[in-house]
C-alpha cells in the first residue's frame, strides 16, 4: 500500500529551486509504486514573479513571497531550502523548529559555526529528517565507478584528480550577485568545490589533510545589477558603477586520505567555454576510471581484462544494471541518456522515502555530513600558500565520519 503523500514546499525559485520543484513533481514516477508521493503545496521566493512562475510551471498549489508563510503552513511537511548560502541557517532553523523535514542545499552554510548551529537545531528536532543536497553522489556513473572501487576490480584509489570548471564568471560585465560575496573560500571553493571535496571523500574516505592551496580572483569588480541577479546572473541589466568581488575565481589544492591516497583539485568559475565541466580521474590499485559530466551517461575504465592484444581504455554506456537507472528513468536502457536534473529526482525520491521510513535508496547525507564538508573547506582555505597571517596553512586532521 502506498504511503501517505508528503506536503512539500520549495524555498527559493532560482536556478536550483526549480530543479527541486521539478524533482518533487516527478519523484513518485520512479522506482516502486508504494513510496509516498509529494503533495506540491508551495513555492516561496522573495521575488514574486519567480515564485509564481515556478508554482505554475511545476504544479504547486501556492506561490509565497515570504518563506515564513511556508514554515507556518500546517499543510507543509517538508521543505527544500534552495536560496543563497547566507540564508540557509535562519530558514533551516525555523523549519526544523516547526517540525518540518528539511533538505538544505550545499554548502550547508557560509561557515563552520553556522553549520554547527544547524546540526544542533537538527538534533533538537527528533523524528525530523535533516538532509543536505550533495546531488552528485547520485550520479549513476559516479556511483558505478564507486562500486568498482569498493566491491569490484579497481580496488582502492591511489590518486584522485578532480576538476570542476565553470565559465559563469568569465564575463567581467556579468553583475554582482551573492556568489561573489563573502571572503576567501566562499567563492568557487564553496560553490562547486563543496561538491568535489565531497565526491573525493565518497571514493577515498575522510580527508586527512589539505596542502598547497592557491586562490586567485581575476575579475576584481563587477557591475551593480539593476534587476534581480539570480543563478549565474545572466540576462540582467547593470548599472555603470562597479562593486568589489570578495572571493576567489580559481582555487587549486591537494589533499590526502586514509591509506595514502592523494587528491589534486582545480576549481574555476572563469574557465572559458566550460559551462559545467566536472571531471574525475581515479587511478586505483588495479585500474583507472574516469567520469566527465559533459557525457554524464557513460564512464571510462581500464583494468586487467580483457586480455591483450585488445586491452585498453573502454567506454561503458550506462544501463539499468547500473545504480539508480533501473526504474529511475521512463526509458532506462543504454544510450537514451540522462543528466543532472535527473539526480534531483533521485534525491527527492530518497528524501521522501526517508520521511516515510523506507530505506531502499542510499539516504540523503545529513546536516552533520554538511558540517563536515564545511570543515574540509575551512581546511582548504587554511592551507593557502599566500603568506598572510590569517591564512597561513597547515594540514589539518578531520576525524568526522563521511
Ligand atoms: N546541488 C547542486 O547541484 C546545486 C546547483 C546550484 C546551486 N546549488 C545551491 O543552491 C543554493 C541556491 O543557488 P541558486 O543558484 O539556485 O541561487 P539563485 O540565485 O539562482 O536563486 C536563489 C533564489 O532565492 C531567492 N531569494 C533570495 N532571498 C530570498 C528570501 N529571503 N526568501 C525566499 N527567496 C529568496 C532569489 O530571489 C532567487 O530566486 C545555493 O546554496 C547553491 O550553492 C546547488
Query: What is the oligomeric state here?
Result: single chain
Number of domains: 2
Strand segment count:
16
State the CATH architecture of the largest domain: 2-Layer Sandwich
Tell me what portion of residues adopts beta-strand conformation. Answer: 15-25%
- Any idea what the shape is? globular
Structural class by sheet pairing and helices: alpha/beta
Largest sheet: 8 strands, mixed
**Which range best describes the helical content: under 10%, 10-25%, 25-40%, 40-55%, 55-70% or over 70%?**
25-40%
Bound molecules: nicotinamide-adenine-dinucleotide
Rg calc: 21 Å
Description:
With 402 residues, the chain is α/β, with parallel strands linked by helices. It has two domains: 6-135, Rossmann fold (3-Layer(aba) Sandwich), CATH 3.40.50; 140-295 and 297-338 and 374-382, Dihydrodipicolinate Reductase, domain 2, CATH 3.30.360.10. Helices cover 28% and strands 23% of the residues. The protein has nine helices and 16 strands. It has helices at residues 15-26, 48-58, 67-72, 88-97, 112-123, 140-150, 188-204, 340-355, 367-382; strands at residues 6-11, 38-44, 62-64, 78-81, 101-104, 130-132, 157-165, 209-216, 221-225, 238-244, 250-256, 262-268, 277-284, 287-292, 298-303, 314-317. The strands form three sheets. An eight-stranded mixed β-sheet has the order 8-11-12-7-13-14-15-16, with helices on one face. It has a six-stranded parallel β-sheet with strand order 3-2-1-4-5-6, with helices on both faces. A two-stranded antiparallel ribbon has the order 9-10. Helix 1 links the parallel strand 1 and strand 2 (38-44). The longest helix has 17 residues, at 188-204. Mean pLDDT is 94; it is low at 387-393. Nicotinamide-adenine-dinucleotide binds next to helix 1.
Amino acid at each position: 500500500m502506498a504511503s501517505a503523500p508528503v506536503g512539500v514546499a520549495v524555498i527559493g525559485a532560482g536556478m536550483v529551486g526549480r530543479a527541486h520543484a521539478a524533482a518533487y513533481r516527478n519523484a513518485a514516477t520512479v522506482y516502486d509504486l508504494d513510496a509516498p508521493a509529494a503533495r506540491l503545496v508551495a513555492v516561496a521566493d522573495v521575488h514574486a514573479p519567480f515564485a509564481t512562475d515556478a508554482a505554475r510551471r511545476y504544479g504547486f498549489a501556492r506561490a509565497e513571497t515570504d518563506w515564513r508563510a511556508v514554515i507556518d503552513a500546517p499543510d507543509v511537511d517538508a521543505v527544500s531550502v534552495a536560496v543563497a548560502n547566507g540564508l540557509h541557517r535562519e530558514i533551516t532553523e525555523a523549519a526544523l523548529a516547526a517540525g518540518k523535514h528539511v533538505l538544505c542545499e550545499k554548502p550547508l552554510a557560509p561557515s563552520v559555526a553556522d553549520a554547527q548551529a544547524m546540526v544542533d537545531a537538527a538534533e533538537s528536532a527528533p523524528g525530523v529528517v535533516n538532509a543536505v543536497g550533495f546531488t552528485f553522489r547520485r550520479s549513476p556513473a559516479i556511483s558505478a565507478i564507486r562500486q568498482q572501487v569498493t566491491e569490484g576490480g579497481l580496488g582502492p584509489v591511489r590518486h584522485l584528480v578532480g576538476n570542476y570548471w565553470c565559465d559563469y564568471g568569465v564575463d567581467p560585465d556579468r553583475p554582482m550577485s551573492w556568489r561573489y560575496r563573502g571572503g576567501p573560500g566562499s567563492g568557487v571553493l564553496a560553490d562547486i568545490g563543496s561538491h568535489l571535496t565531497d565526491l573525493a571523500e565518497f571514493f577515498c574516505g575522510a580527508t586527512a589533510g589539505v596542502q598547497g592551496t592557491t586562490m586567485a580572483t581575476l575579475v576584481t569588480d563587477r557591475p551593480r545589477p539593476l534587476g534581480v541577479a539570480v543563478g549565474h546572473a545572466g540576462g540582467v541589466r547593470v548599472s555603470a558603477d562597479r562593486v568589489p568581488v570578495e572571493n576567489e575565481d580559481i582555487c587549486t589544492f591537494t589533499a590526502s586520505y586514509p591509506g595514502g591516497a592523494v587528491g589534486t583539485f582545480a576549481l574555476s568559475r572563469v574557465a572559458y567555454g566550460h559551462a559545467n565541466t566536472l571531471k574525475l580521474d581515479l587511478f586505483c590499485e588495479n585500474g583507472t576510471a574516469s567520469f566527465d559530466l559533459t557525457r554524464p551517461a557513460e564512464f571510462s575504465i581500464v583494468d586487467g581484462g580483457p586480455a591483450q592484444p585488445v586491452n585498453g581504455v573502454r567506454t561503458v554506456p550506462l544501463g539499468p544494471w547500473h545504480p539508480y537507472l533501473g526504474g529511475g528513468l521512463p526509458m532506462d536502457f543504454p544510450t537514451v541518456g540522462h543528466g543532472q536534473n535527473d539526480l534531483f529526482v533521485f534525491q527527492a525520491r530518497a528524501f521522501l522515502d526517508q520521511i516515510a521510513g523506507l530505506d531502499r535508496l542510499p539516504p540523503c547525507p545529513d546536516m552533520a555530513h554538511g558540517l563536515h564538508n564545511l570543515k574540509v573547506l575551512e581546511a582548504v582555505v587554511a592551507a593557502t600558500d599566500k603568506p598572510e597571517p590569517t591564512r597561513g596553512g597547515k594540514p589539518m586532521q578531520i576525524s568526522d565520519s563521511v
